[in-house]
Each structure stands twice: as structure tokens, then as C-alpha cells.
Amino acid sequence: MKIIDNINSLLGDDLKKSLNKKSKLKIAASCFSIYAYESLKFELAKIDSLQFIFTSPAFIADEVAGKIHKERREFFIPKKEREKSLYGSEFEIQLRNKLTQRAIARECAEWMRSKAVFRSNKTKAPMQQFACIQQEEQDVAYMPLHGFTAVDIGYQKGDAVSNIINRFDEPTFTGTYLQLFEQIWNDSDKLEDVTSIVCDHIESVYHENSPERIYFLILYNIFSEFLSDIDEDVLPNDRTGYQDTLVWQKLFNYQKDAAVGIINKLETYNGCILADSVGLGKTFTALAVIKYYELRNRSVLVLCPKKLSDNWLNYNSNLNTNIFSKDRFNYDVLCHTDLSRTSGVSFGIPLNRINWGNYDLVVIDESHNFRNNEAFKDRETRYQKLMNKVIKNGVKTKVLMLSATPVNNRFSDLRNQLALAYEGDSENLSNKLRSQRSVEEVFRRAQVAFNQWAKLPPEKRTAKAILDTLDFDFFELLDCVTIARSRKHIQAFYDTKDIGPFPERLKPLSFRCPLTARADVPDFNGIFAALSQLKLSVYAPISYILPSRLRNYEERYDTQVEGGRSKFRQADRERSLQALMTTNLLKRLESSVEAFRLTLSGLHENHVQMLSRIQAFKQSGGGAVTDWSDRLETLDADDDDVPVFSGEPVGGKVKIHLADMDLPSWEADLSADLAVITALLASMNKVTPEDDAKLQHLQELIQKKIVAPLNADNKKVLIFTAFADTANYLYDNLAPLFRARGLHTGKVTGKDAPKSTLKKNYDFQSILTLFSPISKEKALALSGEPHEIDLLIGTDCISEGQNLQDCDYLINYDIHWNPVRIIQRFGRIDRIGSRNTHIQLVNYWPDISLDEYINLKERVETRMMIADVTATGDDNMLTAQSSEVSYRKEQLRRLQEEVIELEDLKTGVSITDLGLNDFRMDLLGYVKAHGDMELAPKGMHAVVPAQLALGLRPGAIFALRNRNDGATVHQHNRLHPYYLVYVAKDGEVVAYHSEVKRLLDLVRTSCKGQGEPIAEVCRLFNQQTKEGRDMKVYSTLLSAAVRSMIEVKEEKDIDSLFTGGKTTALTNTISGLDDFELIAFLVVQEAQ
Asked: pTM for the whole thing?
């Protein structure tokens, strides 16, 4: 007998000496590994045969098939470990990381087929573990033996305290063991033959893998925690029949993904923001979610801006323009402003009796209008009303928010919207996240990072720079509650064959037309100079109250804000109103002569009335005026068409006695304003439609388009303006002209009834259906109307939520001051699934240089950036979208040159393309269809062709698992303990482990849909690596991948020492490759 301690003497060395040509090797052990075979392959190649008994059940059908899946999985974890160790136990990871397992597996399988037989214990009875060598000269027995792996034979280090084995060569001992082995081997009640199954498993390592299988194997490992958390409760329930609804069939593949993701998030986190880019069909996606909840007998409320209400009302009514009438939608629609109303009727719902607390799901369209959560002393803001009346009150309410711009430049915007989902108590959400920080803390840190980024010079202010500074927790949070995809994302990662491509955008046409050619009318700059003299004191009576009487009014009308810390003065409200009216004049001048003329007329009348009231007071000594600031509360934040407040405000709260005012000063200011207004009005009255240079140019432009269409036979033109007055003016002047050419014109403003040159009176939706008959399915909705509308004039009431992609030519008759609106307008025709190959955007700019234009806007906006106008805390219509002149200039300059994406416009961070939800849903679908992948070998690879256009350079993408769970690289990695790194052939890192979304996108692009190995690139790869035997190139790349992680970590550690919060330096670090286990890798192979 000899003792082998596996330190000074190794079992493997002893086996090498003992085995010879005639040896029959018999092993009873818990597991077998190809790396043990590799260590002894020369000796094993010589032996006569191997008989191997798995002493505990392995590779046999599970007996407890009746038990529920999850329980079975937990019960059999040791069995799975035994089976997995075929390709290397957890202590042979270093060997696996050499990437040669494929070649070893091939050799091992060939050897097994000729020399080995495997049987497995199929009972629960324990068996002793030992090995015998039967040969002519001397039998040998080894005991005890844990398994047959590189660790057990002493060639790799394990974690056992000791690994001592006794070697017996005395015949009495060896005979006993051999007899025992033979007895068990031949007992068919205890053992079952598993040779072919073991060979098949080992073959799976060296078979060519399809890229799709490797993609899902990577996802399976990364998101295994997600799979175990998922239960049927948080996934859409197929039994509701939602997939049979008409709206579901109408969805494109990416919209279905979003709808399933939204339902999952609503069920898990109670809320979700859908922030897909303009033109990707958020409305339909939301309708599919609404239908799902309606099928589960839930009551649904849609809250939308007034201008979009018609769109939503169309789908829940029994009208022929409702393409989903078969689905019988049953949700209620109310406007954002209805939250502030307590009486009256909105779309047939009496507001004094509505049961706000009884809605199970609230869908908020344009949810960014609920960004502000400022508290005021004596009134509830619209945000608070929504929170208290609808969400906290009554039944548990889920919240789906739709917005193309959920983040402006403050993350609190996003936080306030999310707070609606967690009912204002962040604990509700924090408990469900993997982060240790609270939601507030996550947002606070993100804001700090954003502020630092905003101070960088423009060339350094890149998306990558902000992504690097934001915390893992922030992405985790966004990922849980938002779904946001851009158009680029859809094109890159979805099969768009059945959808059709996006149309090609031609370079925008920009025109600068003077107001008129008449010499007796001032130009744009001249008019602006005159407008600058206006004080508009008619809107600010409080500013003229005598100092001795002022206190009385302040006490009565000033509002305490921020819990009483500061005051919002009535005088500030008035000043904001003055600024708003000045801006309104300027915007209307930019829009059309007619809109400007009508506004001047209203102002003129206002001043005349006010001056006559002062005269009446002088005679009678009595009288009071009311200021108009209360009217601001009823205005929609997005509404540009501000009315000229004229006449006496009805029911105004603020009443001022004329006796308390400094009337001489007020009268003087009013008279001065009136003189300017009268002079401007006289000039404007001289400009007839024939003198209107812009209108004449527009007529010529449209006529040219009709004669020479962009796309065969498409004569359609869509004209946008911010003002109903301009729309009416254009309709009156264009409709007769085009009727003469046999074309019909339509007009929708949202202010008055829609109009068209057709004989019948059509409503809002019917006019849009006649304008875009294919996308709006006119054949179903209005089959009796033979004509179509070719020219549509509209305001921003149709700039969102409408598919008008039959049209290929869009004209902005006035440029909106917020570039986002321009993109939203263009999104009506620039949509996925358009039948046009080209589309054209036309912009009419004021007749001044861009610099003058920007400066002009800056001057006006600085006057406007006073306190919040409405003092309700609702979105301020006045705050400039971005206070940075240079930035705004850049946006507008680009709008002249190209059509820009909303993502490119954002002043801050686009939350598009940060979420990992698509991948989770991909995996879920795969596991449902193909079952678990738990037994798949680790370290496998697939080969895909390089595609430089998609960012796939020759090299390899590695998926690794960090074995040292304490290592804190995860402070910069959302997938910890899993890591992805992409290294090019030349050793350059293409994508670091912190760029999770980009890496997963690359893997998805190259693999999804590739269900078979790609023969050509596999052949090249096998040729270059000698069938996987020479993997030196790739093992070098693997080392480079791990090195890149250490470098990035060190760099970020150093940064963390010098920034606020916890440092990540000096915490557990990665020492190198041995800390990682290779899960799988993707070879990006260049074709020859």
C-alpha cells in the first residue's frame, strides 16, 4: 500500500506509470472531465478499455417529472454540477480559458466511442468511489476517489483541505475491489448505460454552433436571475386573448416587444415610461397595452393634452373612422387641464361627479407636462391633483407614461414622472431594484454627474462622456421603468422586411421671404424695434398701485411657495403675462401678416377700452379693473396659440380699485403703447395677400411640387403653422387656387370646426383619413367618398400621434421656437412603413440672418425667464428650452441643413438605447420555445462574418463570469458578475465592459436569426486554428480583454478618489484571467 497525497506524489503520475497496453481501467466516481482525459491521453489511448460508473445519478431521466419545475431544479443542482463537469469542473476553469476545449472534446469523443462504456447509478443508494486497473502483471486499486477530473488526479488545485488517496497493489485488496466493481457493473437494477448520452454531450462542445444559440447562451447566463424572478403574474397572460385583437395584429414586431415589456414593467414596478422616438408609433403600442388590461376587466383612463384628445377619442368610439372598432375599446379620455377643473363636462363626463380613484390604469400622453412638482401654499398643482385624486386614492393604479422627451436638462423631470408610478413613496420602487441606494439618491448623483458634464466644452460633451460618468444604479433604474428605442435602433436590431424601410430624407429647403416688397411697410427688424418699445402695461395694473395701498393687495393675492420659504408675487405673474404677450406678438409676426394683424387689432381694442374706463372713472370716481393673470392657468403648456385677452375678464380673482392706482402714469403708458400699436396696424393693413411675399412664394412652391412630384403621382402637401389665424388665412388663399386645378384642400386647427372643399362636412378624423387614405385605411372608414384631400393645412393639434405618411412633402410655414416641435411635425410623414422613397421638409424662416434671429429670441426670452407664470407649478410655457445660445444656434443651424433626430437634439441625455429590456424579452421567448439552457457547456463559440458597416470588426466578443463575487468592477458594470468585452484582432478594445448596451446590440445584430452555423466563416476559422487545436490568437485576445477590464477599473478608481461619494479604489480587485470563467465567445471572422 502507498499513500498518494497529491502534493509530493500525484495520482495522475501514478496512473501514467501503471497503465499499459493491456490495462482495463475501471472507475466508480461522481464525475468525469475531458481535462482529466487530456492529462492522460497518451496513456489512455493505449489501454484496452474503460468502464466508468457515475456513483450518483447522472445523464438519466429525472424521476420526479411530476414535481414543479422550479423545485426540481433546486433538488438536482448537484446532479447538474456532475453532468457539467464533463467539460471541466469549477476548478478547471483555467484550462477552459485556454479555449482548446473544442479540440480536446473531439479527441475525447473519438476515444470514448472506441474504448469506453459509461453506466450511471440510477438509485438513490450511495456507492463507494474507487478505481481499479486490471492487467496481467499486477492489478492496482485506488481509494477513495472523489471524481475523475484534473483536480482529483492532482494536476489542478482544488479547494479540498486534503486530497489523499491510498494505492493498493496487494492481490487481496485489489481482488476485493475488482469483485465489487464487477458485481455492481453487472447489476442492471442499479445501473443504466449512458455511454451514447455522454458522447453526445461531449460532441456538443465541438460541433459548430449557430450564432443564435451562442447569443441565447450568453443571455441565459447574464439574465438567469431575471428568469428565476419572473413568474406568470408579471408576464402578459395569453389566455386573455390579447394576441387575437385587431390592434395586436396591426403592431410591428418592435411594437409587440414594447407592449410585452410594458405589461411586465407595469406588473412588476407599477409604472413605465414609453419614450420611443418620434414616428415609431407609441399610440398603437399604448392601445395594445390598454386592450390587454381591458380584457382583464380593468378600467382605464387616458389623460392627454387637449389638442390630442380627438386622436384618442377616435379609437374608443363607434365611428367608421375608428380602424379598431372591432376591439371595442372602452377607456375614458380626459385632458390634462381637467384635473384642475371641478365643474362642467369634458367629453361627456361630468367633472363634479367623476370617480377619479377608480381607475386601474392611467395612460398619460405627453407625460413630460407633469414634470414639475413644486408645492404651493393654498392650491394643489395639477401634478399633485393627479397624484392625490387618481393615483393614491381608491384602487391600486398603474401608470403608463408616453413621452418622446421625458428628460429635459433636469433629472428631477424624470423623477417626478416616475414618482407617479410609486405613489410618491420611493420605498415602493427602491425595494424592487437591485441597487442599495434609494431612488432619490440615484437621481441626485445622476444630476451631479450631469451638471459636471454640462460644464465641459462642447467638443467633449459627448454621449459617451456622460455614460461613463453616470452610475450603474441610474441605468438599472431606467432599465426597470423605461422603454426607449430610437429609429436607428429599430433599423439596426429588428428585421424590417415586413415593415418596410424609413423613407429617405432629402436635404431641407430653407426660404427667407421678406414681409412684403412694399417700401411703405417696415421690415422685420423695424417692426421688432417698434415692438420693443411696448410696455403692454394693460396687462399689469398691479404695477401701478400706489405704494401706500400696495401692501393690502400683496397680502390678498401673493402666494407662498416652497412650503412658505418664498413668495410668488402677483406682480411677477403680471410681468410674466406681459412677456408672454410680447413673445406672442413676435411669433405671430413670424407666422403671417394676418396673424400679426389680428393680434394687433385685439390689443388695440384692449387699450381703447381701458383708456375709456379711466375716462369714465375720472367722471364718476368709481370702478375697478381685473387683471388677466388667472387666465394663464387654463392655458395648455404646449399651446402656442395664446389668445389676445380682451374685454373685461369674467370672474377674475384679482380686483383693483382704480382709486388705488397711479392713474396718470398708467394712462400715459397705455397711450404710448396705443400709438405704437395704431401705427403698426396701419402698416399691416396695407399688406394684401397679393403683397404678401411669403404667401406668394408658397403658392408657387406648391404648384411646382404638384407639376413635378417627388414620388410618382403623389401630389400631397402638408402645411404646418403654430396659429389658427394663419391656417385660416392660408386656407382662404390657397383652397380656391387648388380647387381650380381639381385638387381638394382641408384645414384642421383644433380651435374651430374642420373645413374642406369637399361637398360634405367632415369631422377632424375624416379629414385626416381623406388626406392619408392608405395609412388611415380610408377603404374601410370612408368607402363612400370617391375624392381625396391633397393639401392639408394644420396647426400643432396634428403634430403628434398621427400617421400621415401617404404625404411626402411637409412645409413649416413658421419655425417653431422649440426645435423638438419641428421634428415632431416632420414625424407625421417621416414614419416607418412609408410608401414614399423620398420625403421633403420645407422651412420658412424670418427674413433676417440666423444670428439676428437667435439674438432676438434671446432678448425676448431673457425677459420671460421670470418666475413660473401660472404659479400652479405646471410646466412653464415661458422657460427657454435651453438657455445656451451657442447650443440653440447649433440646433437651428442644423435644422436648415438636415433633418435631425430627436435624440441628436436633446440638450442632455437621451434615455433611448440604454435599456436592456429587449434582450430579456428575447431570452424569455427563446426559453419558452426551446426550454432551459442550464446544461449547455461553457466556453463554446460561434463564428460570424465581420461587417464594418455595423461596427463588427474582425476579433472576438467574450462573455465572462467573475468568480470572485466580491470584486467591485461591478460598480462600473451593470451585468456584474458577468462581463462582455470586444477585442479586435489587432488587440485594440472595440467596446469596453462598461458599454453593456452597445456590446449586447452588436451580439444581437450579428447572431439573431442565424439559426444555422455560417459554413463559409466556420471553415476559415477552423483552417486558421487547426480545428481548434491552435487557439493562441484567441487566448491572447482573451487575456487582452481581461487586462482592459483591470485598466478601466483602475482608471475609474482613480477618478472615484477625486469625486464625491464612496470610492471604489482599494476594494477587492481583479488579479487576472484566473478570476474569470469563460461563458462563451463570438468570433468575428473576416471573409477572404
From this structure: 0.69
